[in-house]
Write a structure and sequence with these properties.
- With 322 residues, the chain is mostly helical.
- It has a domain of 168 residues.
- It contains 11 helices and no strands.
- The longest helix is centred in the middle third of the chain and has 34 residues.
- It is globular.
- The two termini are 33 Å apart.
Length: 322
């Protein structure tokens, strides 16, 4: 029961941070379209900006909650020891992105038109905020999980070059790319939710356009996940690979279920991207995304194979080893 609750919270956390990271990128594209007089694009950009801010705040709250539930002496030693410097920096990076997103959201117009230079400057703000999140947080928590699983929770503080060396190996690079693509997919599916709202309000023409844009963004990002998934599988440690490939019945079921859900998601997004924007199509695409995120989160939790963590007083293994 506890593991199920953690998986649900983690899936919600990932959904929120994906919205915070991908929303500004898609909204910047919509804002550029809005500068040419497209009112629907302007409203959609404002919608994504608002949900990006909400996602960032709620994602942070869920992240702290998950950390509190999983807190133990070894985890405390990791964040107050080797990752103390990066933990302090993470707070600064979060505040930087939040302030940028807030200012960007307030600057976004609610109607089409305006100067393209202003749209370009807003796009730069959105890019800075979202790339700052994507560059720091997926990498940081991937490295933290690897150190914790290996019991490397004590020792000298990891800084600069040592951290970059850790981040350049193993599953961290494909994971960072996976999170980026997932963020774009979530942003696209958020537009499907907006299209449903507009359809209920009688704005069928605008809803169809928004759904088409969202479906195409989400489909492109989801299709790009295929090679990234193969890359991630190839660089996984032997233990997780073995669980997926046959050692663990639950791991096999989750792996097969995740693949089936991802294929279902691609199929539904394909219909939407081709113009099938009816309410049932949009609802199925949104449901497929939620199920895919939950199953992949459960798979990630299942394949974690933590080693007995050393006590805070014992020296850790060399942290620069990939």
């Amino acid at each position: 029961m506890f593991e199920t609750a953690i998986t649900l919270l983690l899936a919600l956390h990932l959904l929120c941070v994906n919205a915070a990271s991908g929303g500004p990128l898609v909204a910047a594209w919509l804002d550029w379209r809005a500068a040419r007089g497209d009112d629907a694009a302007a409203l959609a950009a404002k919608f994504l900006a608002r949900h990006a801010l909400l996602g960032l705040l709620l994602g942070a709250i869920l992240g702290v909650t998950i950390g509190w539930l999983l807190w133990n002496p070894a985890y405390q030693s990791l964040w107050t020891g080797p990752l103390r410097y990066k933990a302090a920096g993470a707070g600064i990076e979060f505040a930087f992105s939040f302030v940028l997103l807030l200012a960007w959201w307030l600057w976004l117009p609610s109607k089409g038109g305006g100067r393209r230079l202003s749209a370009a400057l807003r796009g730069v703000m959105a890019m800075l905020a979202t790339t700052n999140l994507l560059y720091h947080f997926p990498v940081l928590f991937s490295v933290a999980a690897r150190l914790y699983d290996r019991g490397q929770v004590a020792g000298e503080t990891i800084r600069g070059a040592s951290f970059r060396e850790l981040a350049a190996f193993g599953e961290t690079p494909p994971l960072a790319l996976h999170v980026t693509l997932s963020s774009l997919a979530v942003a696209g599916v958020l537009l499907l939710g907006l299209a449903l709202r507009w359809r209920r309000s009688g704005e069928a023409a605008g809803a169809d356009r928004i759904a088409l844009w969202g479906g195409r963004w989400a489909l492109a990002a989801t299709l790009a996940q295929l090679p990234v998934g193969l890359w991630t599988l190839a660089v996984l440690p032997t233990g997780p690979q073995t669980q997926i490939m046959g050692a663990s019945p639950i791991g096999i079921l989750l792996f097969v279920g995740s693949l089936a859900a991802a294929l279902w998601l691609m199929s539904e997004l394909g219909y939407v991207a081709l113009g099938e924007t009816s309410r049932p199509n949009l609802l199925r695409a949104m449901a497929a995304l939620l199920i895919t995120i939950f199953l992949m989160t459960a798979l990630q939790r299942q394949t974690r194979t933590p080693q007995p963590a050393i006590s805070p007083g014992q020296p850790a293994a060399a942290v620069s080893s990939p």
